Amino acid sequence: MNISTRQLLAFVHSAQLGSFTKAAERLHITPAGLSFCIRELEAQLDSRLFDRTTRSVTLTEAGARLLPTAQRVVQDLQVAVSEVHEVETRVRQALRLGATPLVCNKLIPRAFAAFRRNYPHVTLRVLELQRDAIQDLVASGELDIGFGIFLKGATGIERTRMFSSRLYLVSAADGKQRGNPLRRIGQTRWDQLGGTPLIGLQPSNAVQQLIARHLPDGANDNAGNTSVNHIETQIALAEIGVGAAIIPAFALTACRHYKVVVQELVDPAVDVDFFRIVRKGAVRTGIADDFTRMMVSAVNDLR
């Protein structure tokens, strides 16, 4: 037995309206189509459900016995469909983001204020994660968007470049310096870094690998070099004189509360691209696109 929802709807509306024609109009199908549904249902039940006349249809005893159950099934299904739609609407009204800790701390809050004004009823869920974890969760659909420096593509991921960020050198300031170090940004050349102890990210980090390609010979082999996991840790260690850190421009806002010297690295000037990633084939939403634009605007405000 394979009774369909379409057949039950045809039966219930025909019984309630006493007319195949009116039931067909209610269901937006042809009278012939509705009659076919009723005949199929009767064939599966091996019972005649309606007494038919040229003017109306009335339930047989078998039809009268079936009607309460059919009504309950149709009503339960309609309630379930409504609840599913309600859940789906709530899910769509939540934006799930993943980003590295510094991006979560320094950039996302700047975009959030504008986002909240435009989307007061949307829930924003933010996870602070390492790059690999962000990519994995975006690919699995557990995150809607990921933000970060994803220099290499990944299976199931679609990358969109948001902006480029220049590399800067951060080192300890002398005791006389006061105030915001970003007001006094100088320049230094890559070839001047030879012999300088460096505080880098882990060697497997794509940004660190980009930096390594521009360091002068021997700089990667300095005995005083240190590796950490987070950019703000690099800055804190630079402040106390452990070494110098090379960081992208969007992270410079984290330097405001440290006693450090900031210098743009030149000859050559090196930019690193910042990306938004989404799951390949995922449905694009205006909410996600708007938040991305607000992130770009927040970065532009820092410049």
List the helices and strands and how they pair.
Blueprint: H1 5-17, H2 20-27, H3 31-45, E1 50-52, E2 57-59, H4 61-92, E3 94-99, H5 101-106, H6 108-118, E4 123-128, H7 131-140, E5 145-148, E6 157-172, E7 186-189, E8 198-201, H8 206-214, E9 226-228, H9 231-239, E10 244-248, E11 260-266, E12 271-279, H10 286-302
Parallel strand pairs: 3-4, 3-5, 7-11, 8-9, 8-10
Antiparallel strand pairs: 1-2, 5-12, 6-10, 6-11, 6-12
Can I get a quick summary?
This protein is 43% helix and 23% strand. By secondary structure, it is of the alpha/beta class.
What structural keywords apply?
303 residues, alpha/beta, Arc Repressor Mutant, subunit A, D-Maltodextrin-Binding Protein, domain 2, ten-stranded mixed beta sheet, two-stranded antiparallel ribbon, 43% helix, 23% strand, transcription regulation
What count of domains describes the coordinates? Answer: 3
Question: What's the architecture of the largest domain in CATH terms?
Answer: 3-Layer(aba) Sandwich
Question: Biggest sheet: strands, sense, closure?
Answer: 10 strands, mixed
The CATH superfamily name of the largest domain is: Periplasmic binding protein-like II
Distinct helical segment count: 10
Order of helices and strands: HHHEEHEHHEHEEEEHEHEEEH
Distance between the termini: 69 Å
Shape: rod-shaped
Oligomer: single chain
Number of strands: 12
CATH topology of the largest domain: D-Maltodextrin-Binding Protein, domain 2
Family: Belongs to the LysR transcriptional regulatory family.
GO molecular function: DNA binding; DNA-binding transcription factor activity
Organism: Pigmentiphaga kullae
Protein name: DNA-binding transcriptional LysR family regulator
